[in-house]
């Protein structure tokens, strides 16, 4: 049986390994606005899709090549291993304002936290989930880029105070920030709980939060003037720089990680990650971990009936009723799920993890949020 622990402490800190480029990349484009067509040749860094929201960053080809398959879910690029790449943009010479925000969005940055002033800016420097060491790795190895990203964020947000949340017992710092220590135990790394730990308040209209990974991407965009085309991931206890869209199968082959029939590959962390349906699935923006769960090592979730044991309610840090909300979502009563504070759920996954009968509670909650978003009824 797999033993899951809650500790957010890091094991491996000081190396980011590179991955050999794949021959093909698969980029998930579901719910995005496609910009590339089948048969089109693309340069590395060329925009292939845009986010439908006002603030979401664009999506780019992480390698040059030809778009060989395009459908509602995925865009596949056959890589040509060439040097064809977009030209860098001089981000650092741009003053704060709409043009800078637009440029950052075109470089793949989510500009929602950057687009208005706030008195307090919190940088979340905790590792996101147990077994993922990316946040502390960046604080250890990439301080200069982080400080470049932070200065850019501050020029747009103009905060009065900037605070860096770090794991208790560590001494990470960034210039111009006040370090605040947080107990390194999941789910304390989630933004809502970090804000509460740092400010003492649950509802803070005057506070914005950014993850250290977002600050890093911002710093890279500022320094290189190139789009976000890779992500840093912890895989089996080691850290890698992985081009976006790299198929999981390629990662497993390159790293010599065996997978048997019935095993599950999970992109993301052990609590919030998603099992992929195919090893051809590509790594996405925001994926910072890959875990292989061997068949039989952990009981899988099933559409079983809730037995009203209350375990999920006891484990919910948002103090809502996951049992009730997930049942409303299951029967497509999304408005009722919303009435019972669906929007207060910050998707920690503890309800699913602790469910006595292994109901897919988090999946139901995400389903309800998605459906409300698509129907325009989300907050
Ligand atoms: S995922 Fe479950 S436990 Fe976590 S906040 Fe949402 S409802 Fe509560
Ligand atoms: S833990 Fe599972 S079975 Fe128990 S109340 Fe929650 S949803 Fe129902």
From TrEMBL:
Domain 4Fe-4S ferredoxin-type: 297-327
UniProt keyword terms in alphabetical order: Iron, Iron-sulfur, Metal-binding
Gene3D superfamilies according to UniProt: 3.30.70.20
Keyword Translocase: no
Signal sequence interval, chain numbering: none
GO CC annotations on file: membrane
Any one Pfam family match given in the protein's UniProt record, by short name: Fer4_10
PROSITE patterns in alphabetical order: 4FE4S_FER_1, 4FE4S_FER_2
Superkingdom classification of source: Bacteria
MF (Gene Ontology): 4 iron, 4 sulfur cluster binding; electron transfer activity; metal ion binding
InterPro entries in alphabetical order: 4Fe4S_Fe-S-bd, 4Fe4S_Fe_S_CS, Ion_transpt_RnfC/RsxC
Alphabetical list of PANTHER family matching this protein: ION-TRANSLOCATING OXIDOREDUCTASE COMPLEX SUBUNIT C
Protein name: Electron transport complex protein RnfC
Organism the protein comes from: Maridesulfovibrio ferrireducens
């Amino acid at each position: 049986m797999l033993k899951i622990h809650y500790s957010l402490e890091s094991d491996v800190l000081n190396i980011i390994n590179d991955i050999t480029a794949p021959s093909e990349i698969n980029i998930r484009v579901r719910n995005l606005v496609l910009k590339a067509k089948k048969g089109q040749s693309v340069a590395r860094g060329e925009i292939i899709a845009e986010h439908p929201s006002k603030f979401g960053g664009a999506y780019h080809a992480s390698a040059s090549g030809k778009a060989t398959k395009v459908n509602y879910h995925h865009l596949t690029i056959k890589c040509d291993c060439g040097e064809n790449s977009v030209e860098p943009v001089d981000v650092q010479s741009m003053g704060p304002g709409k043009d800078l925000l637009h440029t950052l969005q075109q470089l793949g940055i989510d500009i929602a936290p950057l687009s208005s002033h706030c008195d307090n800016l919190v940088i979340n420097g905790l590792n996101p989930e147990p077994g993922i060491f990316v946040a502390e790795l960046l604080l250890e190895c990439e301080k200069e880029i982080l400080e470049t990203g932070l200065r850019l964020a501050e020029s747009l947000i103009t905060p009065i105070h900037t605070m860096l949340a770090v794991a208790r017992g560590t001494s990470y710092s960034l210039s111009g920030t006040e370090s605040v220590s947080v107990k390194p135990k999941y789910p304390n790394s989630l933004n809502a709980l970090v804000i509460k730990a740092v400010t003492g308040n649950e509802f803070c209209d005057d506070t914005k939060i950014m993850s250290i990974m977002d600050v890093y991407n911002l710093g890279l965009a500022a320094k290189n003037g190139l789009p976000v085309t890779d992500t840093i991931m912890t895989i089996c206890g080691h850290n890698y720089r992985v081009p976006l869209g790299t198929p999981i199968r390629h990662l497993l082959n390159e790293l010599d990680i065996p997978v048997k029939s019935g095993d599950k590959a999970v992109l993301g962390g052990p609590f919030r990650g998603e099992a992929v349906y195919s090893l051809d699935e590509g790594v996405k923006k925001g994926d910072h971990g890959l875990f292989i769960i061997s068949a039989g090592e952990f009981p899988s979730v099933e559409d079983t009936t809730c037995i009203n044991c209350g375990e999920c309610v006891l484990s919910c840090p948002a103090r809502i009723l996951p049992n009730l909300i997930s049942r409303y979502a299951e029967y497509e009563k999304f408005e009722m799920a919303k009435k019972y504070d669906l929007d207060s759920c910050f998707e920690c996954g503890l309800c699913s993890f602790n469910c006595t009968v292994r109901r897919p509670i988090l999946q139901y909650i995400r389903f309800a949020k998605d459906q409300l978003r698509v129907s325009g009824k989300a907050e």
